[in-house]
């Protein structure tokens, strides 16, 4: 100790002086500020570089392939599935399904990232209409855009529309159909398209890809109608129904349609719904809503997406949604206004397309484009009077 005092000559004395210590503290603070500013400027520059790089990649992509948004390597078939018991007895199409069952990522050919006004603003969308439509169904999309899927406000709440699609055909025909969708999307900004075969067995995949897109581009949307392009959806009624429910902010569980409980898997190998015992062993499915159309909250859509991450794909898309719900401990709910097998008409003598049978429904399957166009204009006719009409079976 004494030593250190002795050896501590002018420098120590300087250090002990109060003025000097204040100076050191000030210098230290200055160094910190410079360092902080420096790292800020550096980060700013490097993120600028990163942005430039991304921009360049994007430009290169758009230059070579007009509408490339997210690319994924081509998913390879899994030949090992051929080793499973029963594989040789599966119908050919089911074998194809099995080879590609593990594939969950496909290049996106068409995207509408601003559909909901950007992820942050997506809570402004009250009802997003999500319509499965294959590239060939141009006529159906055209009619939907003019009728129930028209983008508009109802009771001050926004209704938006998106079609979800894969690709069909091969070679030139595939290219032609992709061009059709590209042209449509340029005009309407309402198509999501991924580069996978748009087939019945790939509908579950399409559903999962949509949910993934929603998490990215439309995460706070309040409600969704998930449906086919051949249904009559009374979207004004849907908005009113959802608006009048308690907790209409979409942050609670809601999954509504025509519920099937205890449905056994189809075991006839000629049926399009055939599912071999080797793939699904139980003798009934979890409760699920018929796929023609159902309503769900943004919350439930997001839960289903999370559950889907760990559930192997089953080709029947509506059953698969039920499996995801069950895994989350949630139930689908029935609504009498959803009619997957057409409207019940009390007598064969009555006109099944009388608009008064449809003024209070939510959704009816199935309609041809021309019927849809006519029905939508008739139910919206301000002169339509249904008060004395016997519409008891149609009542919600
Ligand atoms: C199928 O099983 C056999 C025997 O276990 C194995 O040798 C073969 O590699 C398997 N095939 C594939 C494609 O995994
Ligand atoms: C259906 O099963 C029967 C009997 O197992 C078989 O003979 C037939 O080839 C199968 N059909 C298809 C389309 O796989
Ligand atoms: C599903 O799509 C993939 C990718 O295009 C395709 O390879 C596969 O054959 C399709 N599956 C069925 C059953 O159509």
From TrEMBL:
GO function terms (MF aspect): N-acetyl-beta-D-glucosaminide beta-(1,3)-galactosyltransferase activity
GO cellular component assignments: Golgi membrane
Membrane topology: Single-pass type II membrane protein
Pfam families attached to this UniProt entry: Galactosyl_T (PF01762)
Pathway: Protein modification
Enzyme Commission numbers on file: 2.4.1.-
PANTHER family: BETA-1,3-N-ACETYLGLUCOSAMINYLTRANSFERASE, N-ACETYLLACTOSAMINIDE BETA-1,3-N-ACETYLGLUCOSAMINYLTRANSFERASE 3
Alphabetically ordered keywords of this record: Glycoprotein, Glycosyltransferase, Golgi apparatus, Membrane, Signal-anchor, Transferase, Transmembrane, Transmembrane helix
Family the entry assigns: Belongs to the glycosyltransferase 31 family.
Protein name as annotated: Hexosyltransferase
GO biological process: poly-N-acetyllactosamine biosynthetic process; protein O-linked glycosylation via N-acetyl-galactosamine
Subcellular location per the Swiss-Prot or TrEMBL entry: Golgi apparatus membrane
InterPro entries noted in UniProt: Glyco_trans_31
Residue spans crossing the bilayer: 23-42
Organism: Takifugu rubripes
Location, primary (coarse class): Golgi
